[in-house]
Amino acid sequence: MAQALSAPSNSNRESWTRRWFNTEALTAWVFILPSLVGFVTFYAVPAVRGLYFSFTDWDMLKDPNFIGFDNYVAIFQDKQFWQSLSVTVYYVLLNIPAQTVLAVLLAVMMDRVVKSTLVRSVFILPWLLPAVIVGAIWAWVLNPGLGPIGSIFRSLSLTPPGFLGSPDLAMPSVAMINIWQYTGNAALLIFAGLQTVPKEVYEAGSIDGASEARMFWSITLPLLRPVLVFVLVTTVIGSFQVFDTIAVTTTGGPVGATRVILWYIFEFAFSRFQMGYATAVSVILFLILITITIIQMRVLSANSSDLA
After folding, report:
1. What pLDDT shows up at residue 1?
2. Which of 101, 95, 94, 121 shows the shortest CA–CA distance to 235?
3. How far apart are CA 240 and CA 16, in angstroms?
4. pTM of the entire structure?
5. Which of 112, 121, 160, 176 could serve as 150's disulfide partner, Cβ 3.0–4.6 Å?
């Protein structure tokens, strides 16, 4: 009786061993291991350490002391935190709708009108440039005294506006810079998604007398939903983490008009040396992004496709 009961257990153990320690599995682990080591070393371990530091008063000069939830309580009572979060949301609302609409239009144009690979490559060139270089170029272009935009205004006998020096224009200017840089990449992803849409669907729509606009709203957009969800999720996450452009162009000013959440974290970590507080803000930002991502995935039905 005992041998009969132990037989299935031994069989399961042998099956598990064959599954995980055969030649194919070992080959897979050889290829996965470098990425796994990099992920654990540069992402997982720092994330766990950051979570621990968020419960301490670490200032990078002395050993951290555990203080419980004091950092989190201080964050929610800090008006500057809420102001920086509202500035970040304002930037996201400026950036995402315009970038997504332009990306879809560019992708459709590349699919229907522009057939040249060279022209398509031009759209992605801004994305290939480092964000610091893009910020420096646009800081010069928009400079009212030295840049070409200022020269154009003066040639028309107009006073050039301070795009990056005005509290009202600084954030829209930063959004415009990043829209210029990242729209091409989003358009390329959407263009790739357009290649998966069966051409027979458009032919059937044409036979039924549907206009181009009707087919765009009834065929193209519904079938592009998985790609659009991916683009929206990644661009929203990237928008909440905007930093390089602001560091080069406005450094959080003027008067805090571009003081986004990452700049807020940077100031507390490396200017005030309150690393424990800064990591607590980072944890809150992570939770915010996770929540927004889950909502996007649920609302947009990311797990389903109209092509099925």
Report:
1. 46
2. 95
3. 43
4. 0.87
5. 160
